[in-house]
């Protein structure tokens, strides 16, 4: 009987263990993917800790998955075995809730996130709905493509829907797993790009990634520094810090927008007066649909945007996960199933 290997967690908060399972067959409307690379995202920790409702154990997480279709279920049209595909945070939608009926699929009330709704990509193979697939351009390797299914699409889609135009001042708050991509996308989209981070340690990197300016938020008032540059049309807040977001808000220009991407539970300290002054606003932005992922991959291939990655074999998943949680990764950990 054909088998596959998965990295599973047996109980909430547990460690990953590599086990063999029977190789599954794709059901109606689904495909089986031979995984070539799987990104390790901070959101996976919420699944491992069972922070999200309805997480089932044993758990196989992973929602930044690049590979090839190796089997088609009945009713799948428009896809062929051997095609290179990506599955990101958007792993399918229900089609019948109000957001879906309005065409707002990423806000589906029953969104199927891989590693939550069904087994994800910390494995040699996975099953996914055909509606979750995005095509990977030849110019991108599997390792380069994998993190773009969540970190990439989140930053790219947030920027292209932000209302900012080429030449506008756009600040990226935080230079980490999301921010190092946000700086690249902002520069390639034609924005006057400001990187904001604590300390001078990431200044050289930020400038290499395409930033026109760098602000050390620990050296003074980041909002004042942004205003000295003319005020930001957009602050893309990738740092997982409500305090850092709050401190940057007054750096917005009139009708400027702070877009929160760093998922934290702490409240922002922004008063109604701050919102009213200059008609400024705060927005949240989710990931993106399969088509958004495909657009992100295509733009990245065309423009030269690439994630900075560290690769490890699947067998070393616990080390990779710990490195991601510690913040030591530069900047996305990627598992290689065939190497594990």
TrEMBL record:
It is an enzyme of class 1 (oxidoreductase). It holds the Pfam family ADH_N. Its cofactor is Zn(2+). Gene3D superfamilies: Medium-chain alcohol dehydrogenases, catalytic domain (3.90.180.10), NAD(P)-binding Rossmann-like Domain (3.40.50.720). Its EC number is 1.1.1.1. It comes from the Bacteria. Belongs to the zinc-containing alcohol dehydrogenase family. This is Alcohol dehydrogenase.
């Amino acid at each position: 009987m054909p088998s596959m290997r998965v990295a599973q967690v047996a109980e909430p908060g547990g460690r990953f263990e590599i086990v063999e399972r029977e190789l599954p067959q794709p059901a109606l409307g689904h495909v089986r993917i031979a995984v070539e690379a799987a990104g390790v995202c901070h959101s996976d920790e919420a699944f491992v800790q069972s922070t999200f409702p309805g997480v089932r154990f044993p758990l196989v997480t992973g929602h930044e998955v690049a590979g090839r279709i190796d089997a088609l279920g009945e009713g799948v049209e428009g896809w062929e075995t051997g095609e290179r595909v990506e599955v990101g945070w958007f792993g399918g939608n229900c089609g019948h809730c109000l957001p879906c009926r309005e065409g707002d699929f990423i806000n589906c009330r029953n969104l199927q996130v891989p590693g939550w709704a069904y087994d994800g990509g910390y494995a040699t193979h996975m099953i996914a709905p055909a509606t979750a697939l995005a095509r990977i351009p030849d110019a991108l390797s599997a390792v380069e493509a994998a993190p773009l299914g969540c970190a990439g699409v989140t930053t790219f889609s947030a920027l292209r829907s932000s209302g900012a135009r080429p030449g506008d001042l756009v600040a990226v708050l935080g230079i980490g797993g999301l921010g190092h991509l946000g700086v690249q996308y902002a520069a390639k989209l034609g924005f006057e790009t400001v990187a904001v981070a604590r300390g001078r340690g990431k200044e050289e990197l930020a400038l290499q990634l395409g930033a026109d300016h760098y602000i050390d938020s620990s050296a003074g008032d980041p909002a004042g520094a942004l205003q000295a540059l003319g005020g930001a049309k957009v602050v893309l807040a990738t740092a997982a810090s409500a305090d850092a977001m709050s401190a940057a808000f007054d750096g917005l220009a009139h009708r400027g927008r702070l877009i929160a991407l760093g998922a934290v539970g702490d409240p922002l300290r922004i008063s109604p007066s701050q919102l009213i002054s200059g008609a400024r606003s705060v927005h949240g932005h989710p990931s993106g649909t399969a088509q958004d992922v495909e657009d992100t991959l295509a733009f990245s291939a065309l423009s030269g945007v690439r994630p900075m990655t560290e690769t490890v074999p699947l067998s070393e998943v616990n080390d990779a996960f710990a490195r991601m949680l510690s913040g030591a990764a530069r900047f996305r950990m990627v598992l290689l199933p065939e190497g594990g």
